Amino acid sequence: MSQSSATNSEDDSKTANNESVAVDSVIDFKGKHFGLESTSQDSDDYLVSGSEGTMIDVERFCHADYRIEQYAHSVLDFSSQYGIDLSISYTAPNITGRPSKYPEYGDFPQTFAMRTYGAWWDRAPSRLKEIQPQNVSEIPAEDFIVLYFEDYIIPDEIAIFETYNPGAVIRVWAYTIAKTWICLWEDKEFYTKPIYSPSRARRFTPPLKRIQLPTKTIRLEFNHQRLHYYTEIDAVLLSGKKFNTRNMQHLLDYYERQRKGSILCKLQNMKFRPICRDNYQNRLQHFLMHDLDKFISVLSDVQIQSMQRQQQQQLQSSNTDEMKISKIGLKNMPFEIMLKIFSYLDLKSLFRVGAVSRFLYDVSTHPLLYSELNLKPYWHLASTELLSTLAKRATILKKLDMSWCGCTVQTISPTEFKKFIQQRGDSLTHLRLNSTKFLNASCIDTLGIVCDNLKELSLRNCSPSPPLLNFSCLANLKNLERLDLFQTVIESDLLLTMLENNPKLKHLNLAFCSVAVNMDDVAQHIAKYNKQLISLDMWKAHFLSAQGLLVLSNCHNLEEIDFGWCLREASLGDSLREFLTQCTKLKKLFLAAVRGLTDRDLEYIANLCPNLEQLDLMGVLGISKERYIDILQKCAKLQLLDLCFCDNIMDYDVALWSRTFKVDIKSCQVPNDFR
């Protein structure tokens, strides 16, 4: 590839500076955005400062000596939950209000629990590869919940009441009245500190950054990788000095006056006063056109002369041989090598390096560097302006992850997203929009019409019950290999049509699917049209019968199946035996709360699943311990066995089996309230 072909168009070159300015207001390449730290810092205080480091005196905007404590009032958003919306067990709203179980320790349906624990889902055949992995933080968030509190306060303490398997919280965010997210705390020692192991409830109070902007919206982020089992949270208490809302506009005005960038600081120090028009939006343009020369002229002549003398001395001290050596710079390197080096940079670094020089800008904006985009780690910075800028660069976009962007606070307009898809969606093969709230019917229509090359579509937690979105245009997609509709309500007829139109489908997630969808009908379509299927998740979907299980035996390539809380027949007959006989490649088999399982069914599992690595039998009752031993002996590749809330086994049995067979066995006896 020649260097000339690698540069941007003439129009894009002319807008280089403007684009950098526009994006700099969206992604702060120094880690700040409108005065907020995007990650936690080493300092003890987080202060909103003026140009000379003057702290905003927020005390005069608060009620004097009026400190309050308040529990979460409501849940604004979340990424996953263990319970279903029609139930009150293990759902997100359980985290609101005062603790109902703390300080008791154990498994309680009255708490909030999420979908996964440990690294087991990342080891399954359905595991996902990260898009643009260099963007992923060192401690990635796997789940989140956003909480709303009644009163604005200046936060100084948060207490998280963890009643089961504590230790998953990795970050605490606050959304301030300045419309910015601030990271109040981050667990930088997540992977190095000892795992929290005591079997007792915990009142977790991480040290918070001191901020000077009031908030009443808190976001908790979780990483489950080090959890032994599901974590459960009973309540969240936020404390701080109460903010007088009557002074809100005064504080915002004061904050805006104090917030100055580096150029304004220099101008103020030089006592430089450019002539500005009344229209604030035109001030920068007016300065560049009329006052820039004046600004340059105030540079110290002494400084310039000093720099010139230093350069002359350096030249004189250089020997003759060194002067003859030709200098080789970055511009002399092959453009392909520069692109390869830049391909390891994350999105922030690409924008930063593009501000160094014209040449580096041309390299950093090359379309090949934007064939994959992962905005999920930048959910708090993603905006309509950023999307517009990326549309200019990502002309050959193949993979896009916008999960969590625009959640809670809509910073991305549906119109801009629709425009982006219309411009760049025709080449997309992978699209992830998990927990995005900016989608509307028009956006979905555009996806179905434009993105006809999609191989992966993930719409986790995008449409609640009753459904607010019309997914009918998705019937146009005919090249899907992965479809994820976890916790997303979709019409039964449309789902069946999508299965019929996508014979190459390999991974299908229908967990928490709508109660209107009959899983037996889905099974019939899968057996007829999707025989290449590798993984199928029907966890807590609406009722699959023994007949539905039987027809799925036609999918001989299945390696992963989750029938947890879905297969509720009183007796499975010979359907499980036939299924296991035909699907010999199974590596993951989840049968949580399948009440129809018998000793005979577990014999089938032991004898017909030689490749099994993960087996979930949580809540299965009436099984003799000999059948568990049989599975441990014959399934030589087994790594995980969940026997929580199963009867006829004791703790010492589990300890002995774990040591003998080197298997991670989960066991919780005498449930407080059964899941």
From TrEMBL:
Highest taxon of source: Eukaryota
This protein's GO CC annotations: SCF ubiquitin ligase complex
Record key words, sorted: Ubl conjugation pathway
InterPro entries in the cross-refs: F-box-like_dom_sf (IPR036047), F-box_dom (IPR001810), Leu-rich_rpt_Cys-con_subtyp (IPR006553), LRR_dom_sf (IPR032675)
Chain intervals for the UniProt region annotation (Disordered): 1-20
Domain F-box, first and last residues per copy: 327-373
GO process annotations (BP): SCF-dependent proteasomal ubiquitin-dependent protein catabolic process
Name the record gives this protein: F-box/LRR-repeat protein 4 isoform X2
